[in-house]
Fold each of these.
Amino acid sequence: MSNPEPGKLDLDYYENIILFNSLLSQEYLATIIEHADPAYFNDKSIQTVFKTIAFFFSERGTVPTATEIKSRLTSEEERKAFNDIANRFKEIDTKFNKEELLSNTERFLKERCLYKTILETAEKYAQGKADPADALKEFEKAYTINLTENSGHWYFEDVDNHIKELTTIYNPIPTGWKFLDEKLEGGLFPKTLTCLVGQVNIGKSIFLGNIATNFVLKNKNVLLISLEMSEYMYAKRISAQMTQIPHNQLKVFTDELKQQVKHIEKQIDSKLIIKEYPPKTVTVRHIDAYITKLGHKGFKPEVVVIDYINLLKSSTKNLNSYETVKEIAEQLRALSFKYNIPFVTASQLNRGSFNTSSPGMEGISESIGLAATCDVICSLWQEEEDKELGIINLGMQKNRFGANYGSCAFKVKYETLTLNEVNPDHFSTETPQQAIADAQNTLDKLSITET
């Protein structure tokens, strides 16, 4: 008989260890109960007893005693199973290394979950009932089992780490726009979801493209996912924004375009990837898988821009529009936590909020669940005179990092689709100091004339 491979776990024997520690320690049981499906146990006796323990714990919040377990075993076969297990426990040592126990238990749960998913998927496939989305969900379930999470932030004990995070780790990424950066304590933070909302054709994609360009020029790797325009169309916009060559003249000035792009590339230490998907064909899980794939190729995004959230597909079937957008928003925000980076996207306003000054979150189409989930929400709107002047207003509607009020006007240079902040007085580019100086000059001239 050959020796077991180094590091290999005897899963069948480990079933006894898991059941034993579930009865021995309430902390251990509470840690595994969310992930431990009784179906993971091959031993029918262990499966029966664990099912009873799990049901009792969900009701009472404590580990049942031997007497309490026996009282719930109604058949002779079940009682025999419990007695058989009790005899096995006599051979198990009561002392365990906690880290080793949790690590091995996590491994057991992942492998058994994976094995169960493969069998069920194969069976459904043979019956012609296989659903890739359901299978992917179960595989993801196995992947996300984690029993060794940290014990949280101990505020008083961890004050040094807290200060370190304030000054180094959680430095925000500046957007390049003074209004936003001041409102957001310096820019976009990791583990956040920011959404721009506006009516149809207001300029949401222009803002998302400018955000992507700004971050790339600030040495941040950007992944731009488009579900509305092709990679070619977005690349054309980015080229115009970066080089200031009008987008309708790019094909004329190709030599200048190449020269400027190469020059910019030498000045920065970042990359931009533009990825298109047809609308309503990809879920957040697909995006997660794509980011993982890019990681294997050496690219790790520091910001993800998605144009736009309503065109993503829900990973759960038969949800209404409210539930769909809410689920997608929650999953995107969870992804921002997983990769420790900010996500930026956009959404549309409903018709009732069209042509409204500073529209509120209640006007977000399809789901107020989006407003509840996002960390930052900014509205985009134009008044009648703004359209003639090429002005788009941005207003702060929700902000977990500061004031949730105020607005700023942006001048759109439509030839290059570039945005620049302008003076709050759209009809004058003068600063207050210039206005005062001009008024004084006028008064001086009048005084001379009168003399």
Amino acid sequence: MRKIVLMAVAVLGLSVGSRYACAEETGQITTTIVYDNYPCAEGLKTDWGFSCFVQGMDKTILFDTGRQGDVFMANMEVLKLDPCSVDVVVISHFHGDHTGGLEAFVERNSKVTVYVPAPKRDEFARRLAAKGVEVVWVDKPRTLCPNVYLTGSMGERIIEQSLILGTGEGSVIITGCSHQGIVEILRKTKEIVDRPIDTVFGGFHLAQHSRAQVERIIREFKALGVARPGPTHCTGSEAIAQFREAFGNKCLKLGVGKVLRFPKRLASGETAVRRPASRERLSRR
């Protein structure tokens, strides 16, 4: 009898060990807010702007760089995020509260590729090229690496792009300011990635919207199947309160230092892109 029990325990242990090995193999995607005008963790500086650090994909990605280089780099240090580990920088748009920390960053790591929305800005390109940084101008949707996509340039007066992560829970969208309209970003994501939208977070640019306008936007979120919104930065405190009313505890409370974790996609070789993303050759400009 004892022998049977020991054999059962051994088999159970092997089974549990295999399951955990599988979970360890699939791993996690981690996003950390480095810069925001809302606080979340002690020891970090708040300031108007936004930045997010993405780990766990084939490439480590920095999305936007906040407004002030010293604040940005100080927060990176407190959060123990190594600038030299970054492979790709994505700039959502050219406002200073999203690009201000870039030059301080490339002083520490100039081996990155910086993806910026088209059309090309010569002065911006020259400043980075002088430091040996590779700049890629993005007009159409494109793949950065497996399960990581850019929406491509959107909008008219203010051109902006957003970042999409393919996770085991669905698409995760990171926005800068959503000047082109947060609902338009959601719809564009649906065109690019054949997955439900799990989470969208960042600036939603709703501070000047009326309560009725925000209510309409919230209805669109629900109609498009967004599970968890994370409004912050330029969304506006009243609009954030409305999202919390509408989504309850599924509305993420964000700020500097907030860490969000998502499971990696479990299906190997699964294709998420409806249309081939642009794969132009990288060019040093």
Amino acid sequence: MWEKVVSILGGNVFDGVKDIIRTFKLPPEQQLQFDSRMAELQTQAELKLAELETQDRNSARQREATIKDLTPSILAYSITAGFFGVLFYMLNYEVPQAEREVLFVMLGSLGTAWTGIIAYYFGSSAGSAAKHATIERLTK
């Protein structure tokens, strides 16, 4: 049973709770009710998380539009130029062995930042995929 508790702490809470309840062997009719309610709760939680993510993104965009702050745009352009500039340099010039690791770390950091910028301005495909999966599950 402790393995079940440990798996909850490291994984999906809903799956972990289901596993613990199944360990206690509910009667079949109660198991069906339980599974139905857990699926409903999980769907509600996923929808709430998607809603919170959307509100967070919208509030950041509204702030940017209201204040007309150029900082996010300047940072986005700078990071994009830096990412592709380092990538271009590494592909076209011989990088000394001693500096190679530093450029790899810099390229990885810039790539991660650039991915966040693309997700901010154009939306994230992971969030869209999760939203579509949730909507599909709700319509079934």
Amino acid sequence: MLMLFLVCLAHAEEAYQATAKIWETMDRKNWDAAIAQANRVIRVWGPQARRTNNQLKGYAPAKDAKKYGNLNAAGVSLLLKGDALSKKGDKVAAKVTYQLLLDQYTYAQVWDPKGWYWKPAEEARKKLVLLQKETAPNLKVAKPNFSAAQLKLPGKKGICFSMRTAGEEGSAQENLPRLKKVNPYWSYSWSWDQVAGQPSQVEFVPMAWGAWSSGGLRKGLQDKVVPHIKAGKVKRFLGFNEPDKKEQSNMPYKAALKYWPILESLNVPLCSPGCANPEGLNDGTVQGVNSSWMVDFMREADRLGYRVDYVGVHWYGGTDAADFKAKMRRVYEKYGRRPLMITEFAPADWQAKIHSQNRMKAPAVLDFMKEVLPWMEKQDWIAGYAWFSFEPHEPHGHTSSLFDKSGNLSALGRFYRSVSTDSPNGDQSIDLP
């Protein structure tokens, strides 16, 4: 192995020496010794390194990086352990190791004597993507049952608002005016219930939020959905909502498969469950959900010949548009190039407890939206998207709200409204006050 002479930024010489031994064993291609030595580093210095990482809000400036020696040693040790496991052929264990580095030692840094810094977590993220491609199931996708025209929505831009009964938070009375303000082509409400006042030009797409009995699912669909399909009002249907998340529909993938033929019997284009983790890879955009639920579901659905016409995607990441675009492309390629319905997305900082802690600053969120919406409008493999508008009072997502505290459109909301099929770039002149 061609080894760059890298010096781990370590305040404690012993931690540095222990990490240096991993480099030496990697250079000799002694993978087992490298793994054992990395385990020792994590066992001895890992607890303090995790505490340090949790105290940081981002990467330390170069001038301060040397203060975090134990964290830097732990980060590079895990990266090398993952590399050693991968070289041994244990791809699953390598993915787990890289993910551990991403989750617990995110802000480790390493210095090269030439004067540049690199970040083990960023390297681990790249390696995870490559491993994901190598280990992805070879899906045999059934021939589509619907034409491209049938799969096409009236327009790509949608919106998601709850439409609960009057008096409840998130009621139709509260949210229908907000829906109209953003001028979407389609909408959904995490339910299959039609509500009075839905604009006729906005297609409502019903959803089965979850399912717990075949009889109950069939009856609900027969009462609430089938009449509207027959009337030509309902043209497509969304599968279960975040079944991989305990706080949401929380369904085992085998249970979802059990109920899937009932949804297929509607005979309209059908979107996969919208998972919190659509890749089976925790890249920091998945609300902390570590799960292969979607991978398992899609693999088995294709093996059984079940029909999945769109792939539903949820995304709550940062403001790097390139990362968002790359992830959408990976999901599209991963599941047989089915069109995507990005049914929830917005930058969010789930660690923020008060507004000032939110690292997703309003100017960056607006810049993100100005780049990704026009891009999605131009991708023929993205069928539709729906921004998740957090509320202005929510610390973790207030900068992604389409509305201000008075209920008027924010700058973000005004730009979202300005995007249309005829004007895919929207009004790029819109800016923050």
